Amino acid sequence: MYNPIKKVAAVHDLSGIGRVSLTSVIPILSSMGAQVCPLPTAVLSSHTQYPDFYKVDLSEHLLPFINHWKQLELKFDAIYSGYLASAAQVEIVEHLIDTFYHKKLLVVVDPVMGDNGSRYASLGEDLVDEMKRLIQKADIITPNLTEAALLLDEPYNEEIEQEVVKDWLVRLSEKGPRTVIITSAPEKPKNKSTSVIAYESITKRFWKVSCHYLPANYPGTGDSFTSVVTGAILQGDSLPIALDRAVQFISYGVRATFGHSYDTREGIVLERILKNLDNPVTMGTYELLD
Ligand code: PXL
């Protein structure tokens, strides 16, 4: 089947409050000209950083969803997974990838499991082992530093040296994905800036994009970051340009939000900045690392 518009199967939750997962993925990818076909892993009243959230796990419904898509003979240009509600959902995502596999399919796995050194309380430890398997089927993975540590059974160290991050990138790529992007890598001096470091195994090149750090934590920025990277790659950008676009978008979003006195749990003010995705990258900041 011919897709006039790139089709992305998006396996993430739908959270009512706090701009995470599908409420970030859909507007970003739509703005970048891709069609999002959601496969919702769970429906929640809010993301899990609010107390007393209500969650409906959709695990048992995902196979019938996939079966219907198969019957419709859909062809996806990309499969992009994020927050999974249970370890059992990994097998379902693997099945989705196998069912719709073709040579040009782009598989992006954001192994959402935690941040700032700890695992999200709502997720079981069993998800980590399953996620280690899922990344083997991905072309691109985008763990933050916490998730990279979990995937490699390494201790989390917020002062990790760049050389160690590079070693982690190579080790993760040896598990399957040709592109590994680690976000929230620390820069020195501490608390002035943060960076994204990536490795492409085909060319054996490392890329880095740094950005100014603001002392605020907004949930969902990881989802927005990976969505922009996915949209940019689908549009034909190179990896470093995709990284530049994603870092610039998130930095701008954080700056646009930070000036407001606002409940940070709601995430960045995405609606005010979506139009930035139409801007060309004028002043790129990526570096090629030795
Ligand atoms: O962005 C990560 C994320 C996604 N989905 C849900 C979450 C979180 C982070 O807290 O709770 C439901």
Q: Could you write a compact summary of the structure shown?
A:
The protein has 290 residues and is an alpha/beta fold.
**Number of DSSP helices?**
9
Named CATH topology: UDP-N-acetylmuramoyl-L-alanine:D-glutamate ligase
Q: What value does the Rg take, in angstroms?
A: 18 Å
Bound molecules: 3-hydroxy-5-(hydroxymethyl)-2-methylisonicotinaldehyde
Helix percent reads: 25-40%
Low-pLDDT runs: none
Give the DSSP E fraction (strand runs of 2 or more residues): 15-25%
Please give the alpha-carbon distance between the first and last residues: 43 Å
Mean pLDDT: 95
CATH architecture: 3-Layer(aba) Sandwich
Quaternary = single chain
Please write the CATH class name: Alpha Beta
| Structural class by sheet pairing and helices | alpha/beta
- Biggest sheet strand order reads 3-1-6-7-10-11-12-13-14
How many separate structural domains? 1
Please describe the biggest sheet, giving its number of strands, its sense, and whether it closes into a barrel: 9 strands, mixed
What order do the SSEs take from the amino end to the carboxyl end, as H and E?
A: EEHEEEHEHEEEHEHHEEEHHHE
CATH superfamily: Ribokinase
